[in-house]
Design goal:
The protein is mostly beta strands and 236 residues long. It folds into three domains: 96 residues, Crystallins (Gamma-B Crystallin, domain 1, Sandwich), CATH 2.60.20.10; 96 residues, Crystallins (Gamma-B Crystallin, domain 1); 30 residues. 14% of the residues lie in helices and 39% in strands. Strands 3, 5, 6, 8, 9, 10, 12 and 15 form an eight-stranded antiparallel β-sheet that branches. A four-stranded antiparallel β-sheet has the order 2-1-4-7, with no helix packed on it. Strands 11-16-13-14 form a four-stranded antiparallel β-sheet, with no helix packed on it. Strand 5 and strand 6 form a beta hairpin. The longest helix is centred in the C-terminal third of the chain and has 23 residues.
């Protein structure tokens, strides 16, 4: 049961029941969720959804954007996913925002330009995004032509499916074509490189001591002087 609402939502809304009923999850920005359960959305529990203008939602039956999938572009109101044989099926999902190719991505984001069902278009996406076959992303094979990256985002593109074949990597505020793989991309990954954290180990302690020997020598001298001033009278 349930009814189609006439008011367009401000955000993407995912419902646990048909007819826009039950628990609702609102998504206001582009997002990539490899496992919905890790983001507080129960696995296999989406039964209806609403998508505002300028957004597109991709629902996947398996984790990591695998398995059967459905795509809904706003404005869209879908009161019963069971009509698309996708009721209580979603395990991962992607929300993208339709933008111009010169839009400015923020942290963890990128603007991808490619050919899709609606011709050439640009979408704002976010990490982590591992797409083993671009057609499952709504992208025509060998059609990605340019990218614009945020400062902390890295894009790796491959000429074959499943991250095989020739590859190119672009990082940190890059904006432009995909080099030798322009219009030759069949799979890609979008990631946020993790800075190598400093770990305290015997090796790092030794390296720190060796590289700062002057500092430690000064500490030793000061310590000796303080001991001499404090205990000097007792040594006489």
């Amino acid at each position: 049961m349930g009814q189609t609402l006439s008011i367009e939502p401000k955000y993407v809304q995912l419902y646990s029941k048909t007819g826009f009923q039950g628990m609702v999850h609102e998504i206001s920005d582009p997002v990539s969720i490899p496992q919905v359960a890790l983001k507080g959305i129960p696995d296999n529990d989406i039964s209806s959804l609403m998508v505002p203008s300028g957004y597109e939602v991709r629902l996947y039956a398996d984790n990591d954007f695998n398995g059967d999938y459905r795509v809904y572009r706003g404005p869209a109101q879908v009161p019963q996913l069971k009509n698309a044989n996708f009721d209580d099926v979603t395990s991962s999902l992607i929300v993208v925002k339709l933008v111009s190719d010169d839009a400015d991505p923020e942290k963890d984001q990128a603007v991808l330009t490619y050919s899709g069902r609606n011709g050439t278009e640009s979408v704002l996406v976010t990490t982590p995004l591992n797409i083993s076959n671009v057609t499952r992303f709504g992208m025509t094979n060998n059609s990605m032509s340019k990218v614009k990256l945020a400062s902390e985002t890295a894009l790796s593109v491959y000429s074959n499916k499943d991250y095989q074949g020739e590859n190119e990597k672009f990082t940190g505020q890059y904006s432009g074509s995909l080099g030798g793989l322009t219009n030759k991309v069949s799979s890609f990954t979008l990631t946020t490189p993790i800075e190598k954290k400093f770990q305290i180990t015997p090796a790092t302690i030794q390296q720190s001591f060796v590289s700062n020997w002057g500092f430690w020598l000064a500490i030793l001298i000061v310590g000796v002087l303080l001991l001499w001033l404090f205990w000097g009278g007792k040594w006489e």
